[in-house]
Design goal:
Residues 6-156 form the GAF domain. GO terms for molecular function: L-methionine-(R)-S-oxide reductase activity. It is globular and about 40 Å long. A 6-stranded antiparallel β-sheet has the order 3-2-1-6-5-4, with helices on both faces. With 157 residues, it is α+β, with helices and mostly antiparallel strands. It has one domain: 2-Layer Sandwich (Beta-Lactamase), CATH 3.30.450.40. The chain has helices spanning 4-14, 20-34, 71-79, 131-147; strands spanning 40-48, 51-59, 66-67, 83-85, 103-111, 114-123.
Length: 157
């Protein structure tokens, strides 16, 4: 079990710039190093309406793009609610980027009332993420949001 109060203090110290790219990259590396049993940690950004585009991450190469209608990330983006999935193989529309992933936690990142992106954590362990993990990771996302200039990503054509 992770000490999320300690992790929150560490992340606040680590994010010493307002640059969103640096801060999301640092957050991925931090989570991969500090949270046990992860095989992927990364961000997907909403740069086009209804689509998530791969951002900074740690782990195996990832799926890109992800439409809002697909997978756990799409569900989090559409609902703007954290998705905690004990068994990704039982999740309708699951996108299998890494066959080793068994459970997933996806936290939406909302800035100024708009979906900015999502933080996606995958684990090779079924039922890896508890309610405590969810609340702890949601708090870490709040720290990232408060520490970063999250200009709304522009729609690319």
């Amino acid at each position: 079990m992770s000490d999320y109060a300690l992790l929150a203090r560490q992340l606040e110290t680590l994010l010493d710039t307002r640059d969103w790219l640096t801060n999301t990259a640092q957050t991925c590396a931090f989570l991969m190093h500090e949270i046990p049993d992860l095989n992927w940690a990364g961000f997907y950004l909403q740069r086009q309406p209804g689509t998530l585009i791969l951002g900074p991450f740690q782990g195996m190469p990832a799926c890109n793009p992800i439409p809002f209608e697909k997978g756990v990330c799409g569900a989090a983006a559409t609902s703007r609610q954290t998705q905690r999935v004990a068994d990704v193989h039982a999740f309708p529309g699951h996108i299998a980027c890494d066959a080793a992933s068994r459970s997933e936690l996806v936290v939406p990142i909302v800035h100024d009332g708009e979906l900015w992106g999502v933080l996606d954590l995958d684990s090779p362990r079924p039922e890896r993420f508890s309610e405590d993990d969810q609340h702890g990771i949601e708090r870490l996302v709040e720290i990232l949001i408060n520490a970063s200039d999250l200009s709304t990503p522009t729609v690319t054509g």
